[in-house]
Amino acid sequence: GGGDDAATAPGGSTGEAASGEPLKIGWLTDATSVTRGTYYPEFEGAQLFFETLNAAGGIDGRPVELVMRDMKIDAELAVTSATDLIQGENVLMLAGGSIEGRMPPVFDVARANETPFLAGHSARPDMFPPEPDPLLFTVGNVFEAMSDARLEIWPKLMEEIGVDGGEIACYIHQAPAAQAVCNRWLDEQVKVTPEFSQGPIVNAPLQTTDFTSFVRPIVDANPAAFFDISIASHAIGVAVAARNLGYEGPIVFSMTATPETDIQQVADQAGGEDLYALSNITSISETDVEEIQRILDAAEEYGTEIDPSSATVNGWLMGMVIADALERCGADCDRAGLRDALEETDLDTQGLTGGPLTYSPTDHMGTRYWTAYRWDDGDGALVRAVDEWTEFDPATDLVAPLAP
Amino acid sequence: MQSPPVLRGRSRRWRRSPYLRTDYRRELALFPYSGPRLAVIAVTVLLVAAYPFLADAYWLGVINLAVIAAIGALGLQIVTGMAGQLSLGHAAFLAVGGFFAAGLYLHLGLPLWIAGPAAMLAGATVGAIAGLPALRIRGFYLGITTLAVQYVIIAIGLKYQGYLQTSFGTSGSLSLPIPDLGLFTLTSTMDWYYFLVVLTGVVILAVTNLKRSALGRSLLAVRQRELAAEALGVNVARVKITAFALSGALGGLAGALSAYYYRGVGIEDFDLLLSVEYLAMIIVGGLGSILGAVLGAVFVIATPLLVGQLIAVLGLEGVLSQHLRAIELAVFALTMIGFLLFEPDGLAGVWQRLKTYVTRWPFKYTAMSTQAKR
Amino acid sequence: MLELHQVEVAYNKTATAVRGVSMHAEQGKITTLLGTNGAGKTTTLTAISGFIGMENADVVGGEIVYKGRRLNRLAPHRVSRLGIALVPERDKVFDTLTVTDNIKLTAGSAGKARAVYEEFPRLGELAGRTAGYLSGGEKQLLALAMALVTEPEVLLVDELSLGLAPRVTSDLLGELQRVQRERGLTVLLVEQNAAAALAVADYGYVMEDGRLVHDGTPEALLSHGDIMEFYLGTGNGDDQRRSYRDVKQYRRKRRWAG
Amino acid sequence: MIPTLEVDKVRITFGGITAVDDVSFDLSGQELVALIGPNGAGKTALLNSISGIYRPSSGEVRLEGRSLNGVPVHKIATGGVGRAFQHAELFAGLTVVDNLMVGRHRQLKGSLLSMAVRVGPYLRREVAQRAVVEEVIDFFELEQVRNRPVSSLPFGVQKLVGVARALCMEPRVLLLDEPSSGLTRQEKEDFARFMLRIRHDRGLPMLWVEHDMQMVMDLAERIVVLDHGVKIADGAPDAVAENPAVRTAYLGVDDTEMTRAGSPG
Amino acid sequence: MDFSIILDALKLASVYGVLALGFVIVYRTSRVLNLAQPGVVLLAGLMALTFIPRDATPTRFWLTALVLLALGALAGLALYALLLRPMAGQSHISQVLMTLAALFLLQAISEAGWRGESGFIPMPGRQVAWELFGTNVRLLDVAPIVVAAVVVAGLALFYRYSRSGRQMRAVAENPALAARRGINIEKIGAMAWAIAAALGVVAVFLTSTQGSVSLLLVGTTLKGFTVALVGGLDSLSGLVPAALLVAAAEVVTVRFIDQQLGEAVPYVVLLVVLLVKPWGLAGTREELDRV
Ligand SMILES: Nc1ncnc2c1ncn2[C@@H]1O[C@H](COP(=O)(O)OP(=O)(O)OP(=O)(O)O)[C@@H](O)[C@H]1O
Ligand SMILES: Nc1ncnc2c1ncn2[C@@H]1O[C@H](COP(=O)(O)OP(=O)(O)OP(=O)(O)O)[C@@H](O)[C@H]1O
Ligand SMILES: [Mg+2]
Ligand SMILES: [Mg+2]
Q: Which UniProt keywords apply (chain B) (predicted)?
C-alpha cells in the first residue's frame, strides 16, 4: 500500500527535522466544552503523530503544521473558525470533529471552498457508500452503522462474559442522532439473538449531572447486561450511579465515546469488576503493538493534556491517513490534489485497527473491524476480551439503508 | 419687572441652528434635515455598501452573523430595553423561528421568502404566549418565567427532533437548501451581506418608527410606572403582550435567517448561553437604544474573534493557542465589566457622549438651565 | 459646625446643579434654605449626606466640613454615624417594611422605638401597616420619626411641610423647635413654605439656579422686597397677603444672579 | 341635569382598614371642588377609586351617569377621567413632550404596521396630536424644558408636567392630587393662575386635593372635607371654615389664623 | 410508590435547597439575581477535583474541603468588592448583568485552568451502604440530606436572631436610604456574597455525592434559581417546601412520565407556582400598587 512510507516515517527517524515551508492542516475540535473528553484527544493524537513525523524529516522535508480551532460545540464558532482556517490560514484540508449536529454548517463551508475534510470519531451519512460527498472522509463511524456492526460482536462478547441471554439495558444522552444507537441496535439484536430481550432504554437530557433517577429503571430491571454509550461525562456518571444503586451486572461501554481514561474513573469510583468496552480501534493498553508503543513514546516526549487513550490512537490514525495522502499528493499539493489522494487511500494501519483502511470514489469510510475489551482492575488497563477482529463493511453489511 | 418675551421661534444667532425646526412634521421626521446628521447618515451608508470590498471573506461572514444577531437583539431590546420586562429566554424565539422555517421547508417545501414571514408570525405567537405571565408577574420573577418558556420550547424541540429522527431517519438535524428568494438566490457570503444589510436596515427603520410612535412611548411608560400609564389610558396588558410578540417576531426572523445561513438547525444551539449573549448585546450596546442593539450585536459577535485575530497578529498563537477561548471569554467579560462600570449607557452612550462633547467643546460642563437635549 | 465652601455638584458628570455654594449651619440653631424649584436645595442636602454615586452625581468642587472633618466623598453611613441625619424629599421610607420595622431599623433599641410612638401617636395607630401603603403625610411623619430616633446632632430636612396638613406642619415645626432647643440640635431646613420656615429659623439662605443669592436673619429676609414678593406673597406695601385670585403673571427668571 | 362625576356611598377597605367610608358627593359644570382632610383621611384613596385603581367595596362612582364599577382603569381614563398624581409619577425615560404625548394615547390609535411605516395617516395624526401637546406646553409655560428628560427636572416642575399630562387627555373631569405641594409662593401663584385658566378655557369640573388652606379658601368654590374616611363637611368655603368639626380635625388653628395657616409667629 | 423515590427526591431537594439558598441570600440584600453563582460552583468543583487526589485520606479530604470553603467565601468577597460594590445605585438589570460578566470571567478561569475536564471527587465513605426498605442506601445518599438540613436551619436561625435580617431587606429595597440611616450597606453586601459563595462550595460537594463534576454543573446550578423563585426570592421559609416540591416533581417525571422532560420540569413547576402566587410560596410583594 501507498501508506507504508508515511506510516513508517515517524519511527524511522532517518532524516533530520523538517524545515521547509510548512504544510498547513486545519483542525476543528471541542477543546473546551463538555465534549472535550471525546474530541480533544483526537487532536492530541494527530499532533503527536506530526511532531514525530516532523522530527523525522516531515514530508519531503516540509513540516506539517496543525492549526487548531476550538468549536466549543457552538455552530457560530464552528463556521467562523472553519472559514478562518480555509481563507485566513490557507490550510490544505480540514480535519477533526464535534458532535454530529454541529458538523453540517462546517461541511458547507468546506464545500463552498472545495476543501477536503477528514472526520474523526463521529461521521455522518455524507461519507457513506455508495454516494459519499466528494470532499468528506472519515476514520470514524456513523451511529447506525455502528449499531449494525454491534450485532455480530455483541454475542461474542456475551459468550466470553458468560451471559447467555436476558434483558439488555441501554443508555444514551439526549442527542437525536444518539437515539439510533439504542433503538436501531436493540430492535435488530433481539431479532438476531432471540435469547436477548429489550430492557429499559434510558435517555437523559444533556444537562443532567445527577443520574440517580434516570438509572433507577435499569437497576430495578436488573438486566443481564447494560450497554452504556454517550459523551464521556454522561457515560461514566451513569455507570457509577448504576453501581452505587446496586447494579452488579456487566456494563459495556463504547470505547469510541468512553475511552480508557474514563473507564478508569468508573473503576476508581465504583470498582472495576465487570466493565467492558467495544472498540473498532486498538486500545492504548495494548502496548505490545509497536505502533501503540510509538504513540506512548511520542506522548512521553511531546506531552499531552489528557492521558493517552483510544481517542488519541484515533487521532494518530487520522494523522497517518493525512500524511499518507500528502505524501502521494506530491510536491505542489493543492486542495484538489489532496482530495484525489485521499480518495485513493489504502493504508496499512500498523495494527491500530483490525485491517487496512481503504477509501474509494464510492466509499469514504472503509471497512471497520470490531473487537471487545475487559477492564482489568489489577493492571488498571484494558485487556482483550474477544481475540479476533470482526469485519464490518458498511457497503454490504448494513441491516437497513441509511437515511440521506 | 416686565421683561421681553422669551426668544421663541426666532433665532437671533448669525448662523441657522440645525436644532431649530419650524413645524412639527419636520421635528417628527425620521431624519431631520440637518447638515451634520445627513452627513453622518451618508457616510454610514457608503461605508456599509463598501464594506465587502474592504474586508476579507472571513470578516464579511462575521458581519453577516452580527447583522442577523442585530435583528434578534432589536427584538430583545423592545421587550427588555424599552418595555422593561426582563426576558431571559430570547433564544426560545430564535429556536421557534429557526425550526418553523426549517419545518416548513422539510414538510411543505416552502422557500425562505415565505418561511421568513411565517417564522416571524410563529415567533410572535409564541412571544405573546410567553408574555402572558407578564400580566401577573414582574421583575426577575418574570425573567425566570421566560427562562422557563425557553426550557419548555427546548423540550418540545427535542421531541420534534426525535420524531424527525424516527420517521424521517435523518440524524435529527434539519438541513436546508441555498435560500431562493424568487428574484435571486443567496449563494455567496456577499449575496447574504447585501440581503441582510438591507433587511436589517428595514427592521431598524421600523423599530425606530415604532419607538417614536404611541406604542414606543407606552412601552417606556409601562416600564416606568405601570399604574400611572394605565390611569392615562394605556392598556398595559396589551402593551406588554405586544412587546413580547414583537420581540418574538424579530427573534423568529433572526432564527429563520440563521437557520438558512447555517443551512440547518439543531435544538442544541438554543441554550441559555445564547439568551444570555443576547442580553449582553443590549447591555453593552445600551439598554433601550436601537443603535445600541446593533452595535452591541456586532460587539458581542466580533470581539472574541477579534481577540483571536489580535493574538495571531501578535504572533502569540503558539504560546496561547491552548487558552485562546479562555482569553477571548475573559476579554469579553472584562469589556462587559468595563461598560457596566464606566459607561452604563453602553456603546450608544459613548456615541451620545461623543456627540455632546463635540457640540459643547470647549466647555466641560453645561449649566442645567441651558442644557440642550436632542 | 457644618460648613460648605464653594461647593459644586454635577449630575452625570455633565450638568452642574450647585455652583459655588458657601454656607454655614450654626450649632444648635435652625438654618433654613429657601429657593424656587430646581434651585439645587435637594442636591445640596444630598451632597452633605453622602453620594457614593448613587444619584449619579458628584461633588466636583469645594469642601463640605463638619466639625473640622471633610465630608466630601464620605460614604452615607459614615456621615450618618457622625450624627447627621437626613429626611429626604422622596423615597423616604422602606416601602415593603412595616412601620414598626422601619423604626426599629434605625432605633437600635426597642425602648427607643416605643418612645417614638409616644411622641407621634399617629404612628402608633399605624404600627403594623406596610409603609408603602401609607398616605403621603403619614410617610412624612414616619420619615421624620426615623431620623429623630437616631438622636442626631445635625438634622437635614428636605421639605418638611411637603404634603402635610396645616395643623401637622405647625405642630411639627413647633416640635422641631422644641427638640432643637432641648437637645441643642442643629437643623438645616429646606422649605417651600417660606413664612413657616422663617418663623422658626435663626438664619436663612435663599438659593436660585444653583447659587446662593441672598442670606440673612429672618427679620432681614422677611422685610426684603423680593422675598416678600416671591416667597411670602405679601409686599405691595401693606402686610396683607395677596389673594390667589388676583395674582399677576411671573416669569421664571433669575433675579439676583449675575 | 346629570352631574359629570358622582361619588355615591363609596367605601374602600384594605383588610381591616377602612380608608373611605360611605362618602358621597358630586361634581358638575365647571366647579372647582377642593377635597381636604388630615393626612391619611382617604383623599388619595378616593381619587384612586374614581380612577379605578382601587375598587370600592361598596357604592359606586358614575361618570356622566354611567357606572364605573368594573370598568378597567385604562377605559376609565379614556372615558374622560384625567388624573395628576400626588408624586407626579412621570415616565422617567421620556422627555416632557413624550410624557404629554402619552396623555394623547387615546387619539393615537393605529395598527403596528402604520406606526412602523409612519408615513401617511399615522404621521398626520402624530403631527396633529403634537400640535395639541405643544399648545398645552405653551399653556403651562414649559417651553424651556420640553425636550428635557423628566427625571432631570426639579420636583415642582415635574408636578406641573403631571398636571399638563392630565390635561392632554382632554378629560371631562380633572382629578388633581396635591398639585402645588412643594412649590414656593410665587410658583403657587403661577399654578393658581393655571387652574383658573383651565377652568376658563376648558370649562372642566376639577376635584382638587390640597393642604394649603389659603389657596383653597381663595380658589375653591366648594370644599369637601374628609376625616378618617368619613365626609365631615361639604359646602362653600366660608361655611366649611366655620364648621367646628373641620377646625378640630384639620385646621387646628384659631379663628383669625384660618386664612393664614402657617403664617409667622 | 417505593422508598427509593422518596430518597431520590430528598437527595435532589437537599442539593437544590443549598443552591437556592445561595441565590436567596444575595437577593435579600440587593435584589440582584446572582448569575455568577454557577461559575463559583463550577470552579469549586474543579478545584476539588484537582486538590483531592484519587487516593486521598479522609483527613486530606476534609482539610481540602475546609480550605475550599474559605477560598469560596474569599472569592465571594472579592466578587462583591471588585464588581458589585461599584455598581451601587445602578439599575438591578445592570447589576444582574454584572454578575453575568463575573460568570463569564469565572468560566474563563475554569477554561484556562481545567479546559473541559470532568471527573469525580473521591468522597470518603463511598463504600458504606445499607439495605433499607428494599433499597440500597449509601452513606453518601444520607449525608447530603443531613448536611443540607443543618446548613439551611443554621442560616435561618442566624438571620432570625441577628439584626441583619431586617437590615438586609432595607438595603435591598432602598440602598441609598439605608445608608443614610446608618446601615453599612457594604458590610451587609460583602457578608451576603461571602456566605453565598461558600454555599456554592457546599453545594458542589453535595452534588458530588451523586455525580461527576463537569461543565454541566452550570445547568444544575441554574435549577437552584427555580427553587429560589418557587419559594420566594427573599424568603428562607419558602425554600424548604420549594426544594421538596421541585425535586419531587422532577424525580416523579423522570421515573414515570418522560425522562427527557426532566430538564424542563423545575421550570414548569415554577411557571405554575408563579401564576398562582406571583411572589413565590412565601415571598413578599416587592412592588406595591400605590400612586
Ligand atoms: N438625577 C438628576 N439628573 C440630572 N439632573 C438632575 C437630577 N436631579 C436634579 N437635577 C437637576 O438639578 C437641579 C437642582 O435640582 P434639585 O432637586 O436640587 O432642586 P430643588 O431646589 O430641590 O428643587 P425642588 O424645590 O423642586 O425640590 C435641577 O435643575 C434639576 O433639573
Ligand atoms: N393600598 C393600600 N393598602 C393598605 N392601606 C392603604 C392603601 N392605600 C391607602 N391605605 C391607607 O388608607 C388611608 C388613607 O390613605 P390616603 O392615601 O387616601 O390618604 P390621604 O388622604 O391621601 O392622605 P395625605 O394627605 O397624607 O396624602 C391611609 O391610612 C393609608 O395607610
Ligand atoms: Mg428639592
Ligand atoms: Mg394623598
A: Cell membrane, Membrane, Transmembrane, Transmembrane helix
Is ligand 2 within 6 A of the CB of residue C128?
A: no
Instruction: Give pLDDT tens digits for A296-312.
Output: 999 999 888 888 999 89
Cell representation of residue E70: 474559605
In this complex, do B171 and A100 lie within 8 Å of one another by their Cβ atoms?
yes
**Range from A101-105, A364-368, E23-27, E69-73 carrying the lowest mean pLDDT:** A101-105
Domain ranges in chain E are: 14-214
Residue C58: count of CB within 10 angstroms of its CB: 17
Nearest CA to A107 out of A123, A89, A128, A129 is that of A123
Contact B114, B181 (CB under 8 A): no
Q: Could you tell me the domains of chain B?
A: 55-360 (1.10.3470)
Please give, rounded to a whole number of angstroms, the shortest distance from the CA of C29 to a CA of chain E.
Answer: 22
The reply to whether ligand 2 has any atom less than 6 angstroms from the CB of D35 is no
Taking residues E122-126, report their average pLDDT.
82
Nearest to D126 by CA among E49, A110, B26, A274: B26
Nearest-by-Cβ selection for B369 from C11, C209, C251: C209
Asked if B30's CB is within 8 angstroms of D118's CB, the reply is yes
Cross-chain Cβ contact A177/B263 below 8 Å: no
Q: Give the H/E segment covering residue B352.
A: helix B346-360
Determine A/C contact with 3+ CB pairs under 8 A as the test.
Answer: no
Domains and CATH numbers, chain D: 25-89+154-262 (3.40.50.300)
The full set of domains in chain C, from first to last, is 2-93+152-217 (3.40.50.300), 224-258 (no CATH)
Residues 107-126 of C with CB under 8 A from D: 122, 126
- Interface predicted TM-score (ipTM) of this complex, two decimals: 0.83
Residue pLDDT, tens place only, C127-179 = 888 898 888 888 888 998 999 888 899 999 998 888 888 888 888 888 788 88
Q: Does E92 touch chain C (CB under 8 A)?
A: no
Question: Which H helix or E strand runs over E103?
Answer: helix E92-114
Listed in sequence order, the DSSP H helices in D14-145 are 43-51, 73-78, 96-103, 112-117, 121-139
- The Cβ of residue B191 has, within 10 Å, a number of other Cβ atoms equal to 16
pLDDT for B346:
82
Of B241, B243, B238, B244, nearest in space to B220 by CA: B243
What is the chain D residue with the closest CA to E290?
Answer: D53
Rg (chain E; Cα; Å): 19
Closest-CA distance of chain D to residue E287, Å: 15
